[in-house]
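Lecture 7, part B: from sequences to assemblies.

Below are the input chains for today's worked example.
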Amino acid sequence: MCQHARMASSTHALPAHIRSQALERLRRLVAIPSVAADGRGISEAAVLVAELLREDGFTVEQLETAGAPVVYGERLVPGAPTVLLYHHYDVQPEDPVAAWHSPPFELSERDGALYGRGAADDKGELVSRLAALQLYRERHGELPLGVKVLVEGEEEIGSPNLAPFVHANAERLAADVALWEFGAVDGAGRPMTYCGMKGILTVELHVRTARQDLHSGYGVVVEDAAYRLAAAIASLRDARGNVTIDGFRDGIVPPSVAELALVDALPDEAEALREAFGLRGFLAGLEGAAWRRALFFEPTLNVNGFHAGYGGAGAKTVLPAEAIAKLDFRLVPDQDPWAVLERLREHLARSDFDDVEVRVLQHAERAARSDVGHPYVKEALAALRDVYGMEPTLHPNSPGSGPIHPFVVGLGLSVVGIGCGYPGSGIHAPDEHLRLVDFERGTVAVTRFLERLSGR
Amino acid sequence: MCQHARMASSTHALPAHIRSQALERLRRLVAIPSVAADGRGISEAAVLVAELLREDGFTVEQLETAGAPVVYGERLVPGAPTVLLYHHYDVQPEDPVAAWHSPPFELSERDGALYGRGAADDKGELVSRLAALQLYRERHGELPLGVKVLVEGEEEIGSPNLAPFVHANAERLAADVALWEFGAVDGAGRPMTYCGMKGILTVELHVRTARQDLHSGYGVVVEDAAYRLAAAIASLRDARGNVTIDGFRDGIVPPSVAELALVDALPDEAEALREAFGLRGFLAGLEGAAWRRALFFEPTLNVNGFHAGYGGAGAKTVLPAEAIAKLDFRLVPDQDPWAVLERLREHLARSDFDDVEVRVLQHAERAARSDVGHPYVKEALAALRDVYGMEPTLHPNSPGSGPIHPFVVGLGLSVVGIGCGYPGSGIHAPDEHLRLVDFERGTVAVTRFLERLSGR
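Predicted structure of the full complex, as structure tokens:
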């Protein structure tokens, strides 16, 4: 421990010129509102990412998909192992804008952190990886490993075109290990890595009960779209988060003994999260190992938004004719998002909610977990131990979702995540930010991982 | 029938100069956005109403309340019966503005109707009553009845200050019959009158689960404000509209044999309403007399609005930290709105929804029904029969709510409604309008009522 602590303060610092170049790159990236949900700034962001990769010596191509282009760069080293970096240049919408304390598309430094949409997820992580490669080069010269960088532009809408892209480019994308888009320290500052992601299905539910809003005096005989939708949603899950749709759990593969043991042994993060998020509490009764097993291994259903009728000041006695909700299902291996969609439709029809129309939004990703005992995973843990001077944690998967299935199952890659996040970084939320201390440590840890892979 | 039809085409027309003056007055009134919910244009509308009453020979006072002023005008005839006219100069919010086909605060004539917020409810009815008084005067000279006109400015937010005002001014407001703020023809064009109103309680439900919106990957362990509120609302009523709160029905006085007989004998309006409103259907299984008994005599709970989380394009995988819904309870005699509020709070606490905060909005009115057999009611029916040339219907109460309790119970008045509405007029909704044919007929019918009361 003492030895590692000493290392952290000396060889594990990020040189000022690398840091300042990376933050300037991040400033330029955050200034582009590359919101995949509405398509703003997507092409502009792709062009800038390609430019940065070229500056760093990659052979770069902008590869078209049925949606946003993939920016792909490679620097091959024949005969050597190859690391594939997966990132995305798109971001979540900035809504609700009023809740931000600085403009979302303007990188703003305060209190040791950089604020802006994408500062953490995932533009900050991308510039960190490029800085890590530069640090390696300055320390040791050219990296004796192949590097492939895939930066897509549709991650925040569920990567609808990535699985066919990966399938069609399997040979070009062949690698030995995928360094996934993010990593983090937990609430206590411990670094973590992970080997998988959850899956996801996003849908919109829509109810229309009349041609237009009516005087609510009719509500005693006429249906209320807002009530109908609230009742339909209430029928889909219980207070604990268990989805009550028949067949929803079909296909679930329980976690392995090794995966369960990892999660059971993780430090208890619940209190730290409760404090960081100002939570009223956790879903009924969850605590300890049960809390952690739910977080990592359980699927659920979230209501991302619900809008119907009057939302202004005071009262308006109106019967809304229309109600819309956005939902995401978080899935685990091997739930099939398209089967979940069918079960949802069957549930609504059977529960007398045949007036609730289901529209699929773009997200439909399968979950996947790669082998937690893989040698590359051990190297990632060792790199984190070296740089942070403390024992890292290994998560079988992130509680988030991502397009990992085509890489793990399609390309057969081992996956690890090392990066610059922390639980309070506000990704997907107002005031998203990247702490400078995490940026520095996370970047150096990636360099250390590359050093270990190349025998240093 | 033939005789009446002939009368409608001759003595029952509204002279052009009265009509054009009334519509000019309506144009000026609609141009003022007197939205009680946010207070816009309230004083300006009160001033204009006072000006119109003065022009028509009333002694006018603007009487202060704890909220918006009451405009009060009187023309007394000592020894003669007195008619009290109840109206309001405030309107519902114009939201959703995008759904209007002409600006809400600009009276716009098309297809034989006048569009604008308040064109029907209640500015159109007010100018109709004044036109009816003018028509009487042109036909017969001064009306040999006392007339008192009370125009308040808070009806659309539940008249929070009217009951104490009426109580404090009981002597000044003493009258023999109250001509209520509106009347209508039904879907088949039959005129109707009514003797009461439902009661109401409006509340806002509010849930906060975290300091800010979170990444929805945490939703498997953290509460989702939108789901919590949907589940809470679903627990308050069933699909048929029955409120499932313990004690909600306390105090309900069943309708009298005469009231039930009236409603059972009413023509079936369900199909006409379904067509006018483009309804998907009615609350489970309701039809025929059961449909009518529910409409007139049953209380319910409506969701007027529900807003939480993301509402933009595409998906945003966020866990909303906050959710707000606006609800109205429609009440029947003798439910006490404040007791209903207590039962609601108890229900939420008992159902494990103690995180759902209840805020009372302004509406809290008791229902009341005056005697359906009163002589003034018979005169109103006769007046409608005379002018429309067909048999009118008598409703024990309107399905809507209004501040009728202080007049019926406090002042002991008999109430009747004669006016210019029809079921498709879109009151409280976009494209609110007044059909010119209804305006003309409704105005003349009020004149005929005054003629009958004065023995002509």
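Note for the exam: Residues 1-10 of chain A have pLDDT under 50 and may be disordered. Keep this in mind when comparing with the next example.
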